[in-house]
Amino acid sequence: MHSFFIAILAGLLAIVLTMIITMFVGKTVYDKLNALFVINTNIVMLILVVGLIDDRIDMYIDIALSYAILGFITTVILAKFIGGRR
């Protein structure tokens, strides 16, 4: 069962690395902002998968929720900042 979670972990890491590249080479600011939001979502899923591998999901859920709230607030602030410049 752990090999299944490790395969999911590898897939999520590949998506995060792809989105990091998209953040740096994206054509518009909105592409970069969307890549940041996808990275935040995937990191929350990565934290939960690590919790499943570690068999301490209760602790990792709290960490993932805290990170999700911070990621959402960051995305909203950046979107408001970018939208205000136009």
TrEMBL record:
The chain crosses the membrane at residues 6-26, 33-53, 59-82. GO terms for molecular function: sodium:proton antiporter activity. It comes from the Bacteria. InterPro entries: MrpF/PhaF-like. It is a multi-pass membrane protein. One of its GO terms (cellular component) is plasma membrane. Keywords: Cell membrane, Membrane, Transmembrane, Transmembrane helix, Transport. It is found in: Cell membrane. Belongs to the CPA3 antiporters (TC 2.A.63) subunit F family. This is pH regulation protein F. It comes from Mogibacterium timidum.
